[in-house]
Write a structure and sequence with these properties.
alpha+beta, 4-stranded antiparallel sheet, 4 domains, 15% strand, HIV Type 1 Reverse Transcriptase, Chain A, domain 1
Length: 674
């Protein structure tokens, strides 16, 4: 069994290597063909002639590699049928490039400079220029870069060793030149080393540098996988958000790109006969610039499949979600893969949400995956303006009146259709079991994972309010003001108002093809007016995202109070772990500000002491932190009434208090009615 698996792995590696080489040769020929339309200067003609002088070698290498690939496929029963379709396309490109090259080379006085250079290449040691794709640091782009270099230079039998070395000596942009006398001063003591034949990472003032021998690509015996995680970026973002919660709100002025996106939405959005909205993807650049994405997406899918097979429950839930998507028309099978001139295959992954009462698993697309051209679908799309409502204001309104109502827009993104012309850029791979061939499907709705998806979803709800709001006067202002992403939280004066408001909200969203579900309320009358299938009995948690929080705010409808959830695990007391824990304390309303203040003071101390990330702080900081850790669970016993006691018939005053000390300052506002 082990031998069979090992042979399968060797087969997959060899097939992958050959496919990368085929793609590299094809891409080089495609680039030469594309440059024909741009030969408007002497330099461009020079470059073209230099490149085109190697097309016969490229063609020979392409044919040889394609034959090797098909021979390998023919040797494996279940691997697939040999396919020479790529040869037809390659020959068309080759014929056009060959014709243009012959045309330019045969004209005696058209471009003397070119002829001189061509003659010079033959008689002097100066090497012809070879255009190599640059490596941008993305792991998935490394095999293509490596194979391009290897086939063009390293394995080129017409070049000797000294000539090959010259191709490695082309200079690139220099950001900073560090002399040997100063180099020792930028080295830090942190060194990460593993085996004798593996690279060593040495920390410097400017980040880590890599020394040593790297493993070869696709070794025949062992496979080493190296993964780098930009931990500090997301980590510092969380810490920044911890402090930004108290920033004064800023005016939201649309940039030129955001205004362009807004205009595009207004001009292209339509509705079908059922009232559902149909949107177009807001491209900011030509999507034809996207390169090949199928190969990288296939690798990602096979990796996901292996992980899913290790967990039966998750694997079953994953297929249940895809079956539901197919049944509801969120996915549509593609019968003819060659009917699309430009397309994008998006890899996907699953997000587990065990705390959710309905969907425990969500399929999320990764439209940031780079194609062979170095561009991703997200690079081509507008993000759109941030239309998200202020969660602070939503919670304030939620506390204002006696009757509280909370609901959720079911599958908000997936209720919005995407125009047919844009669906080729939303392809995904899927198969029911690993014995079947991979199939391509189109996502017909707005998916999770596109940079523009949140904008399209919220903007469509705003458009629904504009189109239908006049028919639902009670629901329209609430839907515009009290929705955060797909969650609605509002309050009203009486149970009768709550019943009317709930019914109008359901009808308003139904007019746009949305379903409002998971209703909860502190009013028995309101809950009895809601169908049992649309109710939820669990507590409601307020959060800007699905991340795991140390401290989070939730509402208990049965008691009509706010309570806190504490989720903390003991870990080594280092600057990194302390900041990671503090950054996940979420107290938007400032209800436990004295506790969060202690966390902020600890952050100040860590910076003032100049402590390294993984260094243990002084004992005074450790003791204070351990005390906070041990006492934080006491906050779970704190309950704060949701309703602030406001009565429209009363005289209301807002009272504010502020104070400051050497370490911090704070302010608080109270609503006083009589």
């Amino acid at each position: 069994m082990a031998t069979s698996k090992s042979q399968e792995q060797i087969f997959d590696r060899n097939l992958r290597r050959l496919e990368i080489k085929v793609k590299a040769y094809f891409t080089r020929m495609q680039d030469m063909y594309d440059s024909i339309a741009k030969l408007d200067t002497a330099d461009k003609i020079d470059t073209f002639l230099s490149k085109a002088s190697t097309i016969d070698i490229i063609r020979s290498d392409f044919v040889r590699t394609l034959d090797e690939r098909n021979e390998l496929l023919a040797s494996e029963v279940n691997a697939g049928e040999p396919n020479y379709a790529a040869m037809l396309a390659f020959e068309d490109l080759y014929a056009s490039v060959r014709f243009k090259y012959s045309q330019l080379s045969s004209r005696p006085n058209t471009h003397n400079t070119c002829e001189t250079k061509m003659a010079f290449h033959k008689s002097s040691p100066k090497l012809p220029r070879l255009e190599l794709m640059s490596f941008n640091g993305e792991l998935e782009n490394w095999p293509i870069f490596y194979e391009t270099f290897k086939s063009s230079i390293h394995e080129n039998i017409e070049l000797n060793d000294s000539e090959k070395i010259q191709y490695l000596m082309e200079p690139s942009d220099i950001d900073l030149l560090v002399g040997s006398d100063f180099f020792a001063r930028i080295i830090r003591p942190n060194i990460i080393a593993r085996g004798m034949n593996e690279p060593v990472a040495i920390e410097t003032l400017f980040g880590f540098i890599i020394y040593g021998q790297a493993p070869v690509l696709y070794p025949e015996t062992d496979i080493h996988t190296y993964c780098t995680l930009d931990y500090n970026n997301s980590f510092e973002k969380s810490v920044g958000r911890f402090f930004e919660l108290e920033d004064v709100p800023k005016a939201n002025i649309l940039s030129s790109e955001e205004q362009e996106c807004e205009n595009f939405y207004s001009e292209t959005t339509a509705r079908d006969h059922c009232g559902r909205y149909i949107v177009a993807l807001p491209f900011k650049d030509d999507p034809s610039k996207l390169g090949n994405s199928l190969q990288a997406a296939t690798r990602r899918y096979l990796s996901l499949e292996r992980k899913l097979l290790s967990n039966v429950d998750i694997h079953s839930e994953y297929h249940r979600v895809f079956s539901e998507y197919l049944e509801k028309g969120y996915l549509a099978p593609i019968t003819n893969n060659n009917s699309f001139n430009s397309h994008y295959v998006i890899p996907h992954h699953v997000v587990l949400r065990p705390d959710k009462s309905t969907t425990k698993l969500r399929v999320v697309l990764d439209a940031s995956m780079k194609t062979s051209s170095g561009l991703s679908l997200n690079d081509m799309l507008h993000v759109g303006p941030n239309l998200q409502n202020d969660l602070f204001k939503i919670i304030l309104n939620f506390r204002l009146f006696p009757i509280a109502i909370n609901a959720d827009i079911k599958q908000m993104f997936l209720r919005i259709l995407v125009k047919n012309v844009d669906r080729p850029y939303q392809m995904v791979l899927y198969r029911e079991n690993n014995n079947q061939p991979l199939r391509l499907f189109q996502v017909t709705r707005v998916p999770f994972g596109l940079c523009c998806s949140p904008y399209l979803a919220i903007r469509t709800v705003r458009q629904l309010i504009t189109d239908e709001g006049s028919l639902f006067p009670a629901a329209a202002p609430v839907a515009e003001r009290d929705i955060f992403m797909d969650d609605l939280a509002t309050s009203c004066g009486t149970p009768r108002e709550g019943i009317e408001l709930s019914q109008q909200l359901v009808e308003l969203f139904h007019a746009g093809g949305f379903d409002l579900v998971k209703f909860s309320s502190n009013s028995v009358e309101v809950m009895e007016s809601i169908p049992s299938s649309a109710r939820v009995s669990s507590d409601v948690e307020f959060s800007p995202d699905d991340s795991i929080k140390i401290l989070g705010l939730r509402w208990l409808p049965s008691e009509d109070v706010f309570a806190f959830t504490v989720n903390i695990r003991e870990c080594e007391c280092t600057k990194r772990n302390i900041l990671s824990t503090i950054a996940r304390i979420w107290d938007l309303m400032g209800l436990v500000a004295p506790v969060t203040l202690l966390g902020k003071l600890i952050i100040q101390s860590l910076w003032s002491e100049h402590i390294d990330w993984d260094e243990k702080p002084p004992q005074k900081i450790v003791s204070l932190w351990r005390q906070i850790e041990s006492e934080l669970h006491v906050l779970e016993t704190v309950k704060i009434p949701r309703f602030v006691g406001y009565d429209p018939q009363c005289v209301v005053s807002v009272l504010g208090f502020a104070d400051a000390s050497e370490k911090a300052y704070g302010a608080k506002a109270y609503l006083f009615s009589k």
